[in-house]
């Protein structure tokens, strides 16, 4: 107690001096930006207006038959050719292209590539669109700023957040739990549970439905169901014939990545906006942190100068999006367009007499 009384005046003096010294420093502290400049507001993004205008011209939105945005497309040919994420549009003929103020256009599918999960299509009534010419992406570095279109209107910024690499595939899934209690009693495999936000739930399957056929094959054990699904890629559609309340029905289920279904079994929106149908099995990806939606996949990725260096291919979680680098798809897309524009010419028709072999002659 005596020591406390002795040192208390000294301690008080030290605190007063420290406070006096710190006050001028606090008075000099000033935020380098105005409050409205510390967010993604108009003033902050104003320097990117030219890039936003470019991305709005180079891309469009593909709507499904329900009138909902299915994917973003990137123009690759002035005559209406585009590429987008294949697994998001399993039936392209049911979709429409919405682009700027032009009338909506029907589309035709040209080629799909399961390996890259890209599809080449053509908006049949679109002409003179500003097509992208992709540039090499080898110079892209970890931490570099990049940009992409979002929602068909805005530009999103992000950085390359990991080293480019291959993404291993873990197979496909439909999101059901099954048992073999039907075995020996009746045909089929009973569904005992359906995952939230899963392919099965989206297609309309329910608990207690009995699967009778999968992709044209009769099923009696849940192990065989898993085997049939594992042989396919996420994004593929398979027909399911099933029985509900003694009535046989059928529907199509679009498979998703197994990792997507298992990670989100209880319907937790861990991506804050959903994740893509297919999120894995890519030969090489550029990983970035742009906050995009699954329907933004298929949109071009550029540097801040507007050079196209990749295509968004999978929304993986809240902070992770994968993009395919130019080198993994652009040569293939150019080859497909060339073949579609210049198909092999038909052989000229021949007359019956020219086509028929000459009749044998006999010596007189």
How would you summarize what this structure contains?
With 364 residues, the chain is an alpha+beta fold. Helices cover 21% and strands 31% of the residues. Among the domains are: 43-140 and 329-341, Thrombin, subunit H, CATH 2.40.10; 172-256, PDZ domain (Pdz3 Domain, Roll), CATH 2.30.42.10.
CATH topology of the domain at 43-140 and 329-341: Thrombin, subunit H
Quick one: CATH superfamily of the domain at 43-140 and 329-341? Trypsin-like serine proteases
What is the average of the pLDDT values? 85
> What is the CATH class of the domain at 43-140 and 329-341?
Mainly Beta
End-to-end C-alpha gap: 147 Å
- Uncertain segments are 1-12, 14-23, 352-356, 359-364
H/E series:
HHHEEEEEEEEEEEEHEEHEEEHEEEEHH
Number of helices: 8
Largest sheet: 6 strands, antiparallel, barrel
Please give the structural blueprint.
Elements: H1 2-28, H2 42-45, H3 49-58, E1 59-63, E2 69-75, E3 81-85, E4 96-98, E5 105-113, E6 118-123, E7 145-150, E8 154-159, E9 165-167, E10 172-173, E11 176-179, E12 189-194, H4 199-203, E13 210-214, E14 217-218, H5 222-230, E15 237-244, E16 247-254, E17 256-257, H6 258-263, E18 282-288, E19 300-302, E20 308-317, E21 320-325, H7 330-341, H8 352-355
Antiparallel strand pairs: 1-2, 1-4, 2-3, 3-6, 4-5, 5-6, 7-8, 9-18, 10-17, 11-12, 12-13, 13-14, 13-15, 15-16, 18-21, 19-20, 20-21
Record keyword descriptors for this entry.
364 residues; alpha+beta; Thrombin, subunit H; Pdz3 Domain; 6-stranded antiparallel beta barrel; 6-stranded antiparallel sheet; 8 helices; 21 strands; disordered N terminus; disordered C terminus; serine-type endopeptidase activity; PDZ domain-containing protein
């Amino acid at each position: 107690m005596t020591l406390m009384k002795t040192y208390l005046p000294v301690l008080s003096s030290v605190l007063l001096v420290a406070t006096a010294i710190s006050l001028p420093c606090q008075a000099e502290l000033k935020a380098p930006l105005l409050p409205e400049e510390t967010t993604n507001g108009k003033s902050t993004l104003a320097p990117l207006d030219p890039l936003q205008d470019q991305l709005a011209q180079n891309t469009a939105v593909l709507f499904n038959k329900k009138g909902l945005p299915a994917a973003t497309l990137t123009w690759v040919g002035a005559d209406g050719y585009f590429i987008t994420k294949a697994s998001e549009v399993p039936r392209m003929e049911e979709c429409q292209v919405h682009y700027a103020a032009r009338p909506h256009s029907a589309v035709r599918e040209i080629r799909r590539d399961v390996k890259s999960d890209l599809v080449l299509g053509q908006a049949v009534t679109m002409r003179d669109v500003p097509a992208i010419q992709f540039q090499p992406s080898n110079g892209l570095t970890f931490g570099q700023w990049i940009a992409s279109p979002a929602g068909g209107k805005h530009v999103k910024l992000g950085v390359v957040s990991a080293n480019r690499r291959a993404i291993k595939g873990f197979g496909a899934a439909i999101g059901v739990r099954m048992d073999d209690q039907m075995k020996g009693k009746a045909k089929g495999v009973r569904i005992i549970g359906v995952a939230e936000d899963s392919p099965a739930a989206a297609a309309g399957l329910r608990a207690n439905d009995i699967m009778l056929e999968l992709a044209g094959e009769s099923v009696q054990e849940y192990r065989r169901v898993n085997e049939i699904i594992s042989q396919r890629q996420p994004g593929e559609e398979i027909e399911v014939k099933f029985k509900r309340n003694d009535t046989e029905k059928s529907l199509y289920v679009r498979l998703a990545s197994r990792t997507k279904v298992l990670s989100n079994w209880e319907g937790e929106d861990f991506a804050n906006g959903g994740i893509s149908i297919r999120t894995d099995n890519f030969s090489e990806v550029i990983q970035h942190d742009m906050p995009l939606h699954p329907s933004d996949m298929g949109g071009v990725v550029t540097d801040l100068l507007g050079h196209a260096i990749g295509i968004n291919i999978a929304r993986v979680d809240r902070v992770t999006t994968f993009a395919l680098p130019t080198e993994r798809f652009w040569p293939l897309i150019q080859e497909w367009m060339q073949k579609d524009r210049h198909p092999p010419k038909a052989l000229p028709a021949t007359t019956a007499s020219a086509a028929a072999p000459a009749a044998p002659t006999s010596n007189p």
